[in-house]
Design a protein that fits this description.
There is one protein chain. By secondary structure, this protein is mostly helical. 55% of the residues lie in helices and 3% in strands. The protein contains five helices and two strands, in the order αααβαβα. Strands 1-2 form a two-stranded parallel sheet. α4 links the parallel β1 and β2. α1 packs antiparallel against α2 and α1 packs parallel to α4. The model has no long low-confidence stretch (mean pLDDT 87).
Length: 173
């Protein structure tokens, strides 16, 4: 079933409607993200006692916040994910390779992970500089995302060590 065409983004009324929705939603999401980062920072107190519990806490925080983002996208924009091809098993670890073109791709990947019960287990290959970005970058540090400099000679050992720790610590992804 084909989807209806999108409204013309050049129409000033359409642009104003988008802005009226986007500004408060962005403020809300950034505020709740900083709250999630505060919880993640507090979780550091558990790290000396149990790495497994530390990871579980951070997984739950990510699952809650990212799930909130997916839900808001669906409600605010009427967004829904339609998949095709081989089914991705639920609750199993998997490597998903996406041809990421736009920021909206991230929401769709999170929606897919949410549907499969793995949203808090997402691991991203991310530009190294992102780890310094308040909110999103800080949260990715707590989730063991792979920060790369896009230089194989520099990144190879780090990637190998990260995947080795995923296996040794039985970290779902």
């Amino acid at each position: 079933m084909p989807l209806p065409p999108l409204a013309d983004p050049q129409d000033p009324i359409v642009r104003l409607k988008h802005l009226v929705k986007a500004v408060p939603m962005s403020g809300w999401l950034f505020g709740t993200l900083l709250g999630a980062n505060s919880l993640q920072t507090a979780s550091l107190a558990t790290l000396p006692f149990s790495r497994k519990f530390f990871r579980r806490l951070n997984r739950e925080i990510a699952d809650l916040w990212w799930g909130h983002c997916v839900d808001m996208a669906q409600v605010a924009n009427g967004a829904r994910l339609i998949t095709s091809g081989d089914p991705l098993p639920a609750k199993e670890s998997a490597v998903v390779i996406a041809n990421h073109q736009q920021m909206t791709d991230i929401t769709w990947l999170m929606d897919l992970a949410k549907q499969k019960g793995r949203l808090g287990d997402l691991k991203w290959f991310v530009k190294d500089k992102i780890k310094w970005v308040p909110g999103v970058g800080w949260g990715m540090v707590f989730l063991d995302c792979l920060f790369v400099k896009r230089d194989w000679a520099t990144d190879a050992a780090s990637i190998e060590a990260t995947f080795k720790s995923f296996l040794e610590d039985d970290i779902p992804l």
